[in-house]
């Protein structure tokens, strides 16, 4: 029972992350900020519900469903971060998106 309750809470957290990601995609004007909002929406909006579904499946004794949900969640967690980094790096290197102000100083090759 407690696993199902935690699972439902994680499903709700995932829905809230999806909403925040969608709002960020709409409101942010910069490519990098929109990429960040999309990543937050994807990671938070998909990772937490997968974990929640896995916990609900564990509570009901569906071990294979829980295993697939947990495996999918961790695969998504890793691949989304790598994909977002690759997109940002490629956009900066190709000069498609220029950074107006670099607070850290040097560039990529310094």
UniProtKB/TrEMBL annotation:
InterPro entries: PhaG_MnhG_YufB. Keywords: Membrane, Transmembrane, Transmembrane helix. It holds the Pfam family PhaG_MnhG_YufB. The chain crosses the membrane at residues 33-58, 65-88. Coiled coil: none annotated. One of its GO terms (molecular function) is sodium:proton antiporter activity. It comes from the Archaea. NCBIfam families: CPA3_mnhG_phaG. This is Cation:proton antiporter. It comes from Thermococcus aciditolerans. The lineage of its organism: Archaea, Methanobacteriati, Methanobacteriota, Thermococci, Thermococcales.
